[in-house]
Amino acid sequence: MPRQTTIRHAIETSGIGLHSGSPVKLRLRPGAPNQGIEFRRSDLEGYRVEAAAANIARVSYATSLMKKGVFISTTEHLLAALIGCEIDNITAEIDNLELPILDGSAQPYVEMLDRALPRPQRRPRAYLEIVEPLELSEGGKFIGVYPGRGWQLCYEINFPHPAIGRQRFELDLTRESFRRELAPARTFGFLRDVEAMRRQGLIRGGGFENAVVLDDRRVVNGPLRYADEFVRHKMLDLIGDLALLGMPMRGRVHADKAGHALHTALVKRLMKERSRWRIATGEDAPSQAAEASMAGSAALI
Question: Is 263 annotated in the active site?
């Protein structure tokens, strides 16, 4: 039976926030069994903000959490790394309001977790198993979850840019596939949007060293790490946002031009609609409801 996992010892890094541009120190510490993922603001007497649907805050260009006015921003890359590396229980301490962007991907966080040495715990790992489909759409954007074995993802994007266009990527999520196919994929942005976004207080820490940057025709700071790095990064963001369910998923996820707002809307709806999922452990076979629905949902992705 898969067991919950934490890290053996604390580890630190530092950098700047993508949107705030402010310096920040990050320290990852082992977590107790059943603790889950939690953030602490070391500059605010260690105030705790759990990585949970109830704490989802403003969502636009990043996924943020807020609890009683205490804000934690740009959480998705670290959360994706924790899910991808199968770390269940951990405390992330930061001394500012935004996590460091590092190189714009989850790879530096994966490397941190490796150095901290993952350690199994005595408690079994729990999974959120989808037993009834749920679909959300808004303004041409779509996301759906369906019963399925393992954790299967499909993401599609369509940007009217010669270096991007329509891209589709599918993945069966495992530790190995996350490291190989997703962790190095970086966030991206367009030079034409920089001035307007900075007027809104965004991407003050963004630059060629922590994002893929495009002008109107091409990638300015190539080469890309993958030919389809753009859609892979969107899938990475999705995994980080789904971490706010509080446990890894068992099911199929299909997203089309979705983005953070729709990802987190799905998380909130799932938490409200308890009949659409059950909690399973590693030894559990898929429920009868999931088995019955698999054939019907197979053509949807």
Answer: no
For domain 3-125, give the fold. Answer: Ribosomal Protein S5; domain 2 (3.30.230)
Same CATH fold assignment for domains 3-125 and 127-300 = no
Instruction: For 197-232, write each residue's pLDDT tens digit.
Output: 998 888 899 999 999 999 999 999 999 999 999 999
Rounded to two decimals, the pTM is: 0.93
- Which residues, at least 6 apart from 182, have a Cβ–Cβ distance to it below 8 Å? 80, 84, 106, 171, 232, 235, 236, 239
Query: Domain coordinates of the chain in residue numbers?
Result: 3-125, 127-300
Are 3 and 69 a contacting pair, CB within 8 Å? no
Neighbour tally for 43: CB within 10 Å: 14
Active-site residue identified among 19, 254, 260, 263: 260
Which is the CATH superfamily of the domain at 127-300? lpxc deacetylase, domain 2 (3.30.1700.10)
- pLDDT tens, position by position, 261-272: 999 999 999 999
